[in-house]
Every structure is written in C-alpha cells, then in structure tokens.
Design brief:
Elements lengths: L7 E4 L20 H13 L3 E2 L14 E8 L3 H12 L5 E4 L12 H9 L3 E4 L12 H19 L5 E3 L7 H9 L4 E3 L14 E2 L2 E2 L6 H9 L4 H19 L1 H12 L2
Parallel strand pairs: 1-3, 1-9, 2-3, 3-4, 4-5, 6-7, 7-8
C-alpha cells in the first residue's frame, strides 16, 4: 500500500570545529547548534521522528520524519544522541562495520549504547566500498558480513541498508532484499511520495551551511529548493560518471580543501 510523503534526512557527523573528535567534512559536518535548531523546528512543526521498523505501525496521515546518520562518526554518540534524547526523538545510525573502533569513529561499546538507548543501528556496508563497483561475490560478502557483525554487536535486527556513497541501482537493491534487508536507502533527493516497501528510500542531505529556511523547505518538499537540490544531484551524478570514482574523489578533495 502506497505511503504519502516521508522525508528522510541524511546526516554524517556533527562537529563544532575540526579539532573535535570525529572525521570532519567541509560539506557534511553540521554544527551541533544547527542540528539542535533543526530538531526543534521538526518538533515545533508537528513532525514525529520514527524508526524504519515502525513505519507500518503509524498512520499514513501522520507527519513522520526519519533521521539517518551515515558512516558511524564518533559524534553520533557524543553529540547526536544527547540532543535526540533531550527531545525524546530517535534516529537510524548506518554504521560501516570496518570503521568501528577506528580513530574518530564509533567504538563497539558506543554502538551497543546507541542500540540500548532505543536508537536503530543499521548497515552502511562492511568496508564502505561503492557497491555498484563490486562483483557479485564481493557485493554479497559486503552486505552479509556487515549485517551479521552489526546484529551481533547491537543485539537487534539489521534490516536496513544505506548505500555507501549513495552508489547503486537495481542489482544492489535486489541483492539487499535477497539477503534479508527490508529497507534500502540511496542518496537521491526526494520526499518519497507514494513510497512502497522494498523500493529505494530517497534522502535529503543536510549540509554544513544549510540555513534553517532551506532545511524547512526541503523537509516539506515545497518551493524552489527541492528542484535546485535535484538539479545539483543530477549534475554531480553526471560528473561522477564522466570522471570515474577515483578522479571525482580527488577533485572533490581539492575543491573543499581536504
């Protein structure tokens, strides 16, 4: 049965400065103060945060929003969790299994603590390799190993996958569903109008310098900003295809000063 609009927000790390524990990114590191303001806007405008596993249990007419974090940055536990709990909100944490206990990333104990706090720990692959570039055997191992390791660590079902780098198509979606994932998320901007179980979930990337009015426009998927967001995504996707992964990543790193 189809669903109405379902905004899914995509975050990475929350950093006030480069020196803070975690992996600072000049585009995706959102200031904790901005994140708190965004949470307050959601609350004040009647949005209810929901976990993917609870989608079927909520009314279609509810103003629902899914908050997601990719990679497993240390700030997910140190910054995001307290701000969410202060507001009785929840989020999906998509963790790359091989990043656990690495510098600037979540420790195994922090992953367990997120799950114990009522958050959802889900898969962002095993190594963060782009799934579309893997052969069939490597793709299956990437999805299976991550699922098994995170389930053992969190003691909760891992049935959602966020594509590393947002890269993937029908082959990757079908492989994930075959291996027991119920939800597959990409990085295509959109509001999931008429979304159905098993289809890709679109996401709205929240970036460092996003004003609150832009955030509000994207969550509501109203005005010119959603169109501009989709156009920018299409342009970047074209650049990735033309340049290839390695050349694109090197160019991005130079442009943002990493």
């Amino acid at each position: 049965m189809g669903k109405p609009e379902l905004p899914v927000l995509m975050y990475h790390g929350l950093h006030a400065e480069r020196a803070q524990r975690g992996r600072f990114d000049a585009v995706y590191s959102v200031h904790p103060r901005a994140f708190a303001q965004q949470l307050d806007w959601l609350r004040d405008n009647g949005y209810r945060t929901i976990l993917l596993r609870d989608l079927q249990a909520t009314a279609d007419t509810a103003k629902r929003v899914v908050i997601t974090f990719d990679d497993g940055d240390a700030s997910n536990f140190e910054v995001a969790l307290p701000l969410l709990r202060e507001r009785a909100m929840c989020a999906e944490f998509f963790v790359t299994a091989d990043f656990i206990d690495k510098a600037g990333m979540l420790s195994a104990a922090e992953v367990r603590a997120l799950a114990a706090a009522g958050m959802s720990v889900q898969s962002h692959g095993t190594t963060h390799r782009y799934l579309a570039e893997l052969d069939e055997l490597a793709l299956e191992a990437e999805l299976r190993d991550s699922k098994q390791r995170l389930e053992a660590l969190s003691q909760q079902p891992v049935d959602a996958l966020a594509l590393p780098g947002g890269r993937g198509g029908e082959r990757e979606r079908a492989a994930a569903l075959r291996l027991g994932y119920r939800h597959v998320l990409n990085s295509v901007p959109g509001a999931n109008v008429g979304w159905q179980q098993g289809r890709y979930l679109e996401r709205i990337a929240v970036t460092q310098h996003m004003p609150l009015d832009a955030f509000a426009s994207l969550v509501q998927w109203r005005g010119l900003r959603p169109r501009a967001n989709k156009a920018r995504f299409a342009l970047l996707a074209w650049g990735k295809r033309v340049l290839g992964t390695q050349r694109y990543e090197r160019l991005r790193a130079r442009l943002i000063g990493r």
